[in-house]
Amino acid sequence: MAPPTAQPEKRPQSRQAARAQTESAILTAAQTVFAEAGFGGATMQMIADLAGLPKANLHYYYATKEDLYRHVVQDIFEIWLDAAASFDHAPDPATGIGGYIDAKMEISRRHPNGSKVWASEVMHGAPVIQDYLESTLRDWTDGRIAVIQKWIDAGQMAPISPRHLLYMLWATTQHYADFGHQVQTLNGGKPLSKAEWQTAKDTVKQIILRGIRAA
């Protein structure tokens, strides 16, 4: 009988990796709690419980509820910034805007609670992140407007308002997260399948790109 094969020893998780894992669990729990209860209704205890952590551990990472809330908002915004990378070096609007729609729809599929937190905050007048809207978001929007205007000036798409095109893109792609319950209800009570998400992305791209004469 052959001797049992020696199993490789499991290396202990590094402190940095353990911290990153804990922070990820906290942010995921915070997104869910803030999305369901809002900033006013959420408590650090609720978030700690959902993350499976003692409340003291949660305060070690985030001293206050507002600090954690701002981090959640910043996290979803940075994910959106990554999605906008399709704009920066795209040769034409079909590639740039089409890629942006794909990325934003995928974010709505993977991070619905983060989008809901952002939407709720803005609908209530952005009492916590107004400074963020007036700085980071404004600068980002102005940069994307400049790219779209460049395509317009080059005759690559219809001469429409870049600003209102962006508003339309945000409203359409984020609808699938912010109104996910409605979408699921109208889908027979079932979440969209992978194929249905692809159909949604293709449909949104086709309608918008044809509408701006970039298809």
TrEMBL record:
DNA-binding region residue numbers: 43-62
PROSITE patterns recorded: HTH_TETR_2 (PS50977)
Keyword field: DNA-binding
Gene Ontology biological process terms from the UniProt entry: negative regulation of DNA-templated transcription
Region (Disordered) residue spans: 1-22
HTH tetR-type domain boundaries: 20-80
Highest taxon listed in the record's lineage: Bacteria
Molecular functions per Gene Ontology: DNA-binding transcription factor activity; transcription cis-regulatory region binding
InterPro entries for the chain: Homeodomain-like_sf, HTH-type_TetR-like_transc_reg, HTH_TetR, Tet_transcr_reg_TetR-rel_C_sf, Tscrpt_reg_YcdC_C
Pfam families registered for this protein in UniProt: TetR_C_3, TetR_N
Name of this chain's protein: Transcriptional regulator, TetR family
Organism: Pseudorhodobacter antarcticus
